[in-house]
Amino acid sequence: MTFESPVPDDRLWKPNRKLSQWMEGVVKFIFAAFAFISVITTLGIVLTLIFETFDFFKEVSLWNFLTDTKWTPLFKSAKFGIWVLISATVLTSAIAIIVALPLGLLAAICLSEYATSRVRSLLKPALEILAGVPTVVYGYFALLFVTPLLQLLIPGLQGFNALSAGIVVGISIVPLIASLSEDAIYAVPRSLRDGAYALGATKRETIISVVLPAALSGIVASVILAVSRAIGETMIVALAAGQNPTLGLNPFVPVMTMTAFIVQVSLGDTPAGSLAYRTIFVVGMTLFVITLALNIFSFWFVRRFREKYE
Questions:
Q1: Percentage of the chain surpassing pLDDT 70?
Q2: For residues 242 and 298, is the Cβ–Cβ distance under 8 A?
Q3: 174 and 270 housed in the same domain
Q4: Shared-domain flag, residues 23 and 150
Q5: How far is residue 173's CA from residue 97's CA, in Å, rounded to a whole number?
Q6: So what's the pLDDT on residue 41?
Q7: SS3 212
Q8: Which of 191, 238, 241, 257 is least surrounded by CB atoms within 10 angstroms?
Q9: What pLDDT, on the 0 to 100 scale, is given for residue 100?
């Protein structure tokens, strides 16, 4: 038995092949245009940093830039020792990672391995809320809450210090480590867990000996991305760490990070085109080189130690 369409063949809808091809070409062009704009924007930023950095080193020797122990570019007797800013940036970033790594990794393990679906539905949005808090709010939280609390525990702690800034920067990057690490842990095949259980391993032993090593590349990538985020943090360190360019790794005194210095010079008091004005570009170039090196290392590590499962 056959069925005939109640609508004649000439009235059935037929796709317009030429129109579909034209629309697909338009969509491809739009996507390519956005990709091209992204590349051009990145290239423009890098070239701006390179040209301004080149003009800076016409007046300041690279040797003094790398060996001087003082950073006073806005003073009459200007000094340009970049290690003063780098040491402060490394200090606050190290404190941030010390805080964020255990919290973020344990949160990822909890969400992936222990939490029920109901608990996970509550914890995930809470982490996303932390990620959405503006950094200026974190900065005032560090200055007005964390610092007074630390002063009760550490006598002599100054109002502006690297410790409170680093702790709050660590809190701000916890969602980044937790979310990316949880994705890496969740991607580990169930068969590896079942194999460990079949050999008599407990859940804790399975997580430590099987799951975490299998997800190591993703976890390391999340940590390096969080480090880059901590190094580039601006408002928290500008508000809570102070603006005292001091060489050293003392977390109890005011320090000036690279981003905090850029904020200070960008307020508008420094004449455009002056040597002091060009310092923000050379500092930005230094920051760019550091984060680029971290990203290259992350890319290499992920490719070198990534586990592939069929």
A1: 92
A2: no
A3: yes
A4: no
A5: 8
A6: 92
A7: helix
A8: 191
A9: 93
